[in-house]
Amino acid sequence: MRDAYHDQLDELTNELVELTRLVAGAIGRATQALLDADLELAQRVISSDADIDAMYVGVEQLAFDLLARQQPVAGDLRVIVTGLRIVADLERAGDYAMHVAEVARRRHPSSAVPPELRGTVLELGQLVQRIVTKTGSVIAARDLKLATEIERDDDVIDALHKQLFSILLDEDWTGGVEAAVDVILCGRYYERCADHAVSVARRVAYLVTGERVQALT
């Protein structure tokens, strides 16, 4: 019975890692759809959000079953409760990937990103994809060093986000209001997605140390 219990705990961790893979893939495809005005790819990202939602429900149900049937204490209880919080962060990150794809779909057949901002948006999307991928390794290995790297990665993403704003608010901007709104929205979606990755890293730090942290150093 206890072997089955610990197998379920391992399954909870494995499902969270798989969810990071799904979310990171959605971010990468959404970025490509946004830059290439790829309607089919954008629709795939939007449709695949149902898979992320289904996995979220499955992880949540597994955690609730463990709480109800096993009445865990101490470290095991922390694993389950932390897992519930992590899966919520990852589900929201997936929603932001979907929102980027929705911008791409709305502006088709044109690209929502003006040529002068393509490099910045591409870099932003790639960084966010990598930071979410990295959360999978943090969850799997409970790696506090890697968790700290995620916090630093997020600083770079925040700087790029601010760079987008500075370009769009400059008096020399001639790309129009519609393009500015689209890019501002997508920048915000990427930034919030990265914030959820940081939240996951901090939750893993709590899981390992038992102490809540406001920032990883």
Structural features, described:
The protein is mainly α. The chain has a single domain (2-209), classed as Methane Monooxygenase Hydroxylase, Chain G, domain 1 (Up-down Bundle). It has helices spanning 2-36, 39-70, 74-107, 118-141, 144-169, 177-209. The chain is elongated. The relative contact order is 0.15. The mean pLDDT is 93.
Number of strands: 0
- Separation of the first and last Cα atoms: 40 Å
What global shape is seen? elongated
Low-confidence stretches: none
Number of structurally distinct domains: 1
- Number of DSSP helical runs: 6
Query: What is the CATH top level name?
Result: Mainly Alpha
Percent range for helical residues? over 70%
SSE run? HHHHHH
Radius of gyration, in angstroms, nearest whole number: 19 Å
SSE diagram, text form:
Elements: H1 2-36, H2 39-70, H3 74-107, H4 118-141, H5 144-169, H6 177-209
Helix pairs in contact: 1-2, 1-3, 1-4, 2-3, 3-6, 4-5, 4-6, 5-6
What labels would you give this structure?
single chain; 217 residues; mainly alpha; Methane Monooxygenase Hydroxylase, Chain G, domain 1; 6 helices
In short, what is this structure?
This protein is an all-alpha fold and 217 residues long. It is built from six helices and no strands.
